[in-house]
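Hey, resending since the last one bounced:
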Amino acid sequence: MNVRTRRFGFAVMLGAVPAMMTAAPNATAAVTGISVEQSAEGLRTGCSYTVTVGVDAPVSEAGEVTIGISGGSVPGNGKQLGVAVYHPENGTATFDWTPEYTGRQNLVAQQFKPGQYTSAQYIVVEVGGRGLDTGSSCLPLP
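The structure tokens again:
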């Protein structure tokens, strides 16, 4: 009986190899970069900024791209901000972000399928103060 169990286990393992080989390309999918478009005055709460994430695999293969805050000393640590919009024509995903807290914080971009982690990258940003979004610019507030 013990020999049969081992043979069955070996056969199951051999049957799984082709499935693992076809899954390998997805395993190499990666977030290739993250940036925040900002003015010379820097980031301010109350104003909207575009977060751009580079990805080397489409959402249909590697999963959606989410944006969150992690680390740093701001109260929003660990908060998921939302799902970025994927742009297949240039391999990026974008997200409109309005900072809620001043101070240093990490913006994290993750690409994953439910139950399967793919990749993540983060950047450290400094939100310098409060601002008023005028639609075309951000006016610093005292």
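Helices lie at 2-27, 59-62.

Sorry for the duplicate.
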